[in-house]
Write a structure and sequence with these properties.
The protein is of the alpha+beta class. A four-stranded antiparallel β-sheet has the order 1-4-6-5. It has a two-stranded antiparallel sheet with strand order 2-3. A two-stranded antiparallel ribbon has the order 7-8. It binds flavin mononucleotide (FMN). Flavin mononucleotide (FMN) binds next to strand 5 and helix 8.
Length: about 270
């Protein structure tokens, strides 16, 4: 009993440490290194063995270690938009498309040692609503239900993936904002049959940069004055949403996610 308690408390600490790593976006990597094959194999196992409703198949996975291929995917991610809080209307059309790319930089979270591309899939479908959704005359509710389940499955798998990567000592990043249409799309580049939905980067951080520094965008490259964060010849630094939320927490007693334990609302830092 005591032994289990000791082992579990060590595991609890390891799990929390890993979570505190993978919740952060790693913005640069040491591309001279390669992941050992054993770790790569474990990560692919983790990503492809996540639970899904009725054990249906909701995605397929393209895994890349080839730097040229990864660079080409990364080149199609110039969609990280800054100054959105103050200039949303100026930057975006009402359909959410950016009007002007001068407010955007590439997403270097996936300029990583290994890149996982989650693509849509509908093999092995067995649920009634889901089978209906695949019919040509399917109604919007059935279609939305399947779409939602597929997004959940990718979310669960990618969550397991980044958690396992952090437990193995790696840093991770995400990208959902990449070129989705036309000849420059990631789908066209990778020649996938179905739509890529989410990209995850895993790797070793660049020892010469801090977590949020962009590896190849400098302040001089930022087209608008208030977007710059330092001297022209310094690597541009991404803002951190988590740090923004920590400031909110300190000033306004803000808790990002409300939690009720047995119907009683709890302070998650004091459970
Ligand atoms: C499903 C998902 C999609 C994401 N897509 C993007 C993205 O397209 N671009 C980006 O810069 N970050 C993306 N992120 C990363 C989050 O913005 C990041 O994890 C969060 O802001 C916390 O990290 P930070 O404190 O470094 O900002 C995504 C994260 C998740 C979980």
């Amino acid at each position: 009993m005591l032994l289990i308690f000791i082992i579990n408390s060590q595991m609890n600490d390891e799990i929390k440490k890993a979570i505190d790593i993978c919740k952060l976006a790693q913005r640069n990597y040491d591309l001279k290194k390669r992941l050992p094959h054993n770790d790569l194999e474990t990560l692919i196992y983790v990503a492809t063995n996540s639970p899904s409703k009725q054990n249906e198949t909701h995605f397929n996975l393209r895994v890349y270690t080839d730097p040229a291929r990864i660079q080409a995917i990364y080149d199609r991610t110039k969609n990280f938009t800054f100054s959105t809080n103050t200039r949303t209307e100026e930057i975006f059309t009402t359909t959410g498309v950016q009007k002007d790319q001068k407010y955007s930089v590439t997403n270097s979270q996936i300029k990583a040692n290994v890149v996982f591309v989650y693509c849509d899939d509908t093999r092995n479908i067995r649920g009634g609503t889901h089978l209906t959704a695949l019919r040509e005359d399917a109604g919007p509710i059935a279609k939305e239900t399947l779409f939602e389940q597929k997004a959940m499955s990718i979310g669960i798998s990618s969550g397991q993936l980044v958690m396992a990567a952090a437990l193995l000592g790696y840093k991770t990043g995400y990208c959902s904002a990449f070129e989705k249409t036309g000849k420059d799309s990631v789908q066209n580049l990778l020649q996938t049959e179905s739509e890529p939905r989410l990209i995850v980067g895993v790797g070793y951080p660049d020892p010469n940069l801090t977590r949020k520094q962009h590896p190849d965008v400098y302040n001089k490259d930022i087209g608008i004055k208030e977007g710059k964060h330092g001297k022209d010849d310094e690597n541009w630094v991404y803002p951190s949403m988590i740090e923004e939320d920590m400031i909110k927490e300190a000033y306004y007693n803000y808790q990002k996610i409300d939690v009720w334990l047995n119907d009683e609302k709890v302070d998650i830092n004091k459970i």
